[in-house]
Amino acid sequence: MKSNTFSIGGVHPHEWKKAASSPIEDFPLPEEAAVSMAQHLGSPAEPVVAKGDKVLVGQLIGRATSFVSAPVHSPYSGTVKAVEPRADIAGNMVMHVVITVEGDQWLPEIDRTPDVPMEVRFSAEEILAKIKDAGIVGLGGAAFPTHIKLNPQKKVECLIINGTECEPCLSSDDRIMREYPRQIIMGARLMMRALGTDTCYIGIEENKPEAIQALGDVAAYWPGQKVVVLRKKYPQGGEKQLIDAVIGRRVPSLGLPIDTGAVVQNVGTALAVYEAVQKNKPLIDNVFTLTGPNLEVHRNFRVRVGTPYSKILAAAGNLPEGPLKLISGGPLMGKAIANIEATTLKASSSLLILSGDMVPRNPEMSCIRCGKCVKACPMGLEPYLLNRLCRAGGRQDELEKERIYDCIECGCCQFTCPSYIPLLDMIRTGKAEVMKIMRSRSKK
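Predicted structure:
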């Protein structure tokens, strides 16, 4: 079977997908949970419950506050202990609804039967309303509210479902594709109806043969849906790279994926859309990988939003001796966890545990002009030059000219640099400064 990939840059890190063979398990409910009101791109939700209130699983506890926002629902039944700021994984104070968990009582309108209804019974407007009310957000990383992305106000030629999971160590998407193929295909069909398109491509990397088979078998029954096998390369899961790989079109600089006629959604989002529309279930949980190259146990859990990372860490069993680095997400684009008592969000995908000897900060050396960072950059940028301009200071005009705003912060440049130059660290800082100037200019 022919396989495709994107046309510029990319790297091939070691896979380390040791959890891929572990079926999904339900993670035990915590005694106390803290549900963040800021777990989507855009404005945080506003709490609609108070201390002492009783809540059921699926009940609204935070309402959307602006156009780019999403409601938040209780993943637990119990009593609201507090509505207060608590630290997230980076240590930033964010409003949370703290719930003392008491049993597991769900709203009666949520369908918890194993039946998989495969009939599209709703109009595009009804589907979008259900997705919005359920608080569905993109589960591929950015957590952008899904109802907005599915209403782009432009002609949509195709929907692309992202099943690449190209980051090392992560396996949650692989497992849901193997275990819930009918639900994912149905979620894709619902999104196709919402978008007004009859074409859907499901991009999966070639290192997931079971997922390719499972989704391919189901998609074959429905016209317009096709599994596209992709060559293994990072960062193939990036929207722009995936569109290039699947339909051979490149998103223009400062453009959006819809400019190519495509809308991209993650396989986890497709599953969440199915549950929201067909089962009346809001987004209250996600499949989550617990792994690390030196761990003895590698597992995939269905984790409810608001679960403390400390509880998940305890499920890892015997940990490597010495200092550890804990990462939410993958090793290349994940975020270091500074507060282990922080809780999971809708888009949380993993707890990656790395021993200290795996994450050394090697002494930085001089650039040897090898060009490896240029070859690796999937956006066609020159990271070595961006690094020099960032270090020089006050060169924002030149950074903008060199399109620093197109950087997707994938880390390919830093991964491939033989001189251990922290290219991504410098470029990320410079990009933030340039984007601030650009936003300020656009408001005038």
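Summary: The CA atoms of residues 228 and 333 lie 24 Å apart.
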